[in-house]
Design brief:
217 residues; alpha/beta; six-stranded mixed beta sheet; 6 helices
């Protein structure tokens, strides 16, 4: 097993290579505006650090969000392209699950990432490997009662201390964590989600309501 993992659902552009037991190489750079520019050079760097060629990879792991439309499609389209070109499977992993897997928290906790618009993408977990609620997007104040008393990880938790007073690292997901979690699930014979995006809401860019189509006479 040699998994190439990548995620662009948060401001972090992150890539890792995992051999089924350990992370062989990894890279992460936080820059919310340069996902498309940074992702492929990051893949090249990770493969170079590991001393392997792309055709040695046996599977692709990609974070499926939730996340913003523009960021998510960069990672998902890249993963689909690699899978098609190499003829290998592409496995989706919820980005929140990757953050939870990396969290050093015992017992129930929350993962929350920044959804912008003063909202967070979030889900609750009973432990770092077990999600107990579906990913959702909400204003922090609207979920305060549901997450009261729970530790929280992720950039969304760090942004809103009134709702998440016990906010902790990691701030952004790492592809290394996504790859390790996917490797565990594959080894256990579990089905991983298809690489389809969890947008949870419409794109920021919208056609104006009073838009008029003008055609030449």
């Amino acid at each position: 097993m040699l998994l190439l993992a990548l995620d662009t659902a948060t401001p972090a552009v992150t890539v890792a290579l995992h051999d089924g037991r350990d992370v062989v190489a990894s890279f992460r750079q936080v820059d919310a505006r340069r996902h498309g520019e940074l992702l492929l050079p990051a893949v090249d760097r990770v493969l170079s650090d590991a001393g392997v060629k792309l055709d040695a990879v046996t599977g692709i792991v990609v974070g499926i969000g939730p996340g913003p439309y523009t960021g998510l499609r960069v990672g998902l389209m890249t993963a689909d392209t690699f899978g098609l070109a190499l003829g290998i499977p592409v496995h989706g992993v919820c980005t929140l699950d990757g953050l939870a897997h990396e969290a050093d928290v015992e017992g129930p906790f929350v993962v929350a990432t920044d959804a912008r618009r003063k909202e967070v993408y979030w889900a609750t977990y009973s432990d770092p490997r077990t999600r107990v609620s579906e990913p959702a997007v909400d204003r922090p104040a609207d979920i305060a009662e549901q997450v009261e008393g729970l530790p929280a990880v992720g950039a969304g938790a760090l942004l809103y201390p009134d709702t998440f007073p016990d906010a902790r690292e990691p701030e952004h997901v790492s592809a290394a964590s996504l790859a390790a979690l996917a490797a565990e699930r594959i080894e256990a014979g579990q089905d991983l989600p298809a690489p389809r995006p969890l947008y949870l809401r419409r794109p920021d860019a919208q056609v104006p309501k009073n838009y008029k189509v003008v055609t030449p006479k």
